[in-house]
Amino acid sequence: MNTWFMWFIIFWVFLLITFMSIGGFFMFRKFMKVLPKADGKSKLDWQNHYVETSRHLWTDESKELLNVLVDPVPSPFRDIARHSIAARIAQVALERKANSITQDHCIEGYILATPKRDYNSLTSYLDKKQIDYSAYKHLLN
């Protein structure tokens, strides 16, 4: 057997193992989100609950602000990010028994829905869009 063919096969074995590991990691993360918590509902069930419960609270301005906030997310993941951020915003508004979702709810929910590792890009994006988040700087710690 030729040595170049053997190296070619070894390269493809490592490439396939790498891609399967990456895919498995993301599948495992998704699986963990659908496992029920102590209350019997999963994280995705709660997100769906908050989005459905708050549909009447969303104004055109708050929907537009949500679209602006999810704009930096890459387009293949934007719908998922919009749903999870909208759920967090809705949770904030429902906990405060608001009559409608305001810009303050959107900014607070956006900060709470963003992982801590992304806070630097979050603050730079809010600064770039000239959105005042000074009232919520305590959440960024």
TrEMBL record:
The chain crosses the membrane at residues 6-28. InterPro entries: YneK (IPR020203). Keywords: Membrane, Transmembrane, Transmembrane helix. This is DUF2621 domain-containing protein. It comes from Paenibacillus agricola. Pfam families: DUF2621.
